[in-house]
Amino acid sequence: KAWRAAIVHCIADPKEVGTENAYEYFADGLLVVDGDTIRAVGDAETLLPTLPHDMLTEHHPDGLITPGFIDTHIHYPQTDMIGSYGEQLLTWLNTYTFPEEGKFADKTHARDVAERFLKELLRNGTTTALVFGTVHKVSVEAFFEACEEQNLRMICGKVMMDRNAPDYLTDTPESSYQESKELIDTWHNKGRLHYAITPRFAPTSSDEQLQLAGQLLGEYDDVYMHTHLSENVDECAWVQDLFPNSKNYLDVYDQNQLLSERSVFAHGIHLCDSEYHRLHETGSAIAFCPTSNLFIGSGLFKLSKAEEYNVNVGMGTDVGGGTSFSILQTLNEAYKVVQLQNENLNPIKSLYLATLGGAKALRLENKIGNLVAGSEADFVILDKKATPLLTSRLALAQSIEESLFVFMTLGDDRAIQATYSAGQCVHLR
Ligand code: GUN
Ligand code: FE
């Protein structure tokens, strides 16, 4: 089957090859899909004569096809507490987050939220996410079971947390190691699913737990590690108190062998040069979560610093600290965060961060992140006429860069006409 519409996707990092060489755009494009895999992408007029005459072609004259979006940091158990008022990180966790996460001891509740969470991701064009569960093993089982039904490429893990949290939400170093291992053995690389070892953040883990998390990571070739890093000033001071023998926040994780090519650290706002350097050296990635960083008042992520040190970066919504499931809206806020630092975020770079850059951060760039032949058919059809304002504003856009920028500024779930995962339609507006 083929889809005919405007098509844009990144083929390289704009930082490495320059903006102009980082993407392909076909004003009248064709995306050819065979089962779950992309067979070809290019100009419709060039490709159509090469294809069988009876091939099914869906034409979207007002459509813009992009790769599916990638969310490199989000909490599915926080779906129902999005927009919780008035606090910064540490009180926000105690007041709103922990009580909400307590409900996920119940697998029926977890499955219900997991299904609504996935619907929300898909209606926003997100086809892959790196996802926090709760401390409960059943929360991750419920999530993976819901993903498996739709054959989605998702990464999730059980939170490891043995201190500084309510009793009903804590595990022990041994139980967290054992349960994480069982989940890895059952779910990691099952279909399109992957496991992430998930210590919540340094303050809620003892040294013993972090050490066992690192040991577990070392036992596997390609398991992920997912945690929070240097989000909030009070949090950073607390980490320095709790771990007096660490050089800096990142060093707490580093001393426990938690930095790797498949390690993703959410936020990384208040980092020193040696931390950027160490992230680069170990091939670790940062999830840039602008809606959350603004909403919980954490600070401004320094994208240019991450670039200077060649640290992989992906976009994260961080729902429920973040305020939107939409990667388009997340890019809207990212643009403003960069503006406040007297820099610019080019729309091609934004597209890169939301697709191929996220895929690279997750080491999945050979599978997802763009539309080259051989990639998994995870893509989105944006609708240029989704709203009156999008219609009128896009009619004036002079280039694909400008059109993308308008989508990223005005667009949200209404702009997503359809979402495809492994060639299957998983959302239709
Ligand atoms: N740090 C530790 N836990 C959390 C969480 O649930 N959300 C955010 N934004 N930061 C955290
Ligand atoms: Fe988070």
UniProtKB/TrEMBL annotation:
<keyword id="KW-0378">Hydrolase</keyword>
<dbReference type="GO" id="GO:0008270">
    <property type="term" value="F:zinc ion binding"/>
</dbReference>
<dbReference type="InterPro" id="IPR014311">
    <property type="entry name" value="Guanine_deaminase"/>
</dbReference>
<comment type="similarity">
    <text>Belongs to the metallo-dependent hydrolases superfamily. ATZ/TRZ family.</text>
</comment>
<comment type="pathway">
    <text>Purine metabolism; guanine degradation; xanthine from guanine: step 1/1.</text>
</comment>
<dbReference type="InterPro" id="IPR006680">
    <property type="entry name" value="Amidohydro-rel"/>
</dbReference>
<dbReference type="InterPro" id="IPR032466">
    <property type="entry name" value="Metal_Hydrolase"/>
</dbReference>
<dbReference type="InterPro" id="IPR011059">
    <property type="entry name" value="Metal-dep_hydrolase_composite"/>
</dbReference>
<dbReference type="GO" id="GO:0006147">
    <property type="term" value="P:guanine catabolic process"/>
</dbReference>
<dbReference type="InterPro" id="IPR051607">
    <property type="entry name" value="Metallo-dep_hydrolases"/>
</dbReference>
<keyword id="KW-0862">Zinc</keyword>
<dbReference type="Pfam" id="PF01979">
    <property type="entry name" value="Amidohydro_1"/>
</dbReference>
<protein>
    <recommendedName>
        <fullName>Guanine deaminase</fullName>
        <ecNumber>3.5.4.3</ecNumber>
    </recommendedName>
</protein>
<comment type="function">
    <text>Catalyzes the hydrolytic deamination of guanine, producing xanthine and ammonia.</text>
</comment>
<feature type="domain" description="Amidohydrolase-related">
    <location>
        <begin position="65"/>
        <end position="425"/>
    </location>
</feature>
<dbReference type="GO" id="GO:0008892">
    <property type="term" value="F:guanine deaminase activity"/>
</dbReference>
<keyword id="KW-0479">Metal-binding</keyword>
<dbReference type="GO" id="GO:0005829">
    <property type="term" value="C:cytosol"/>
</dbReference>
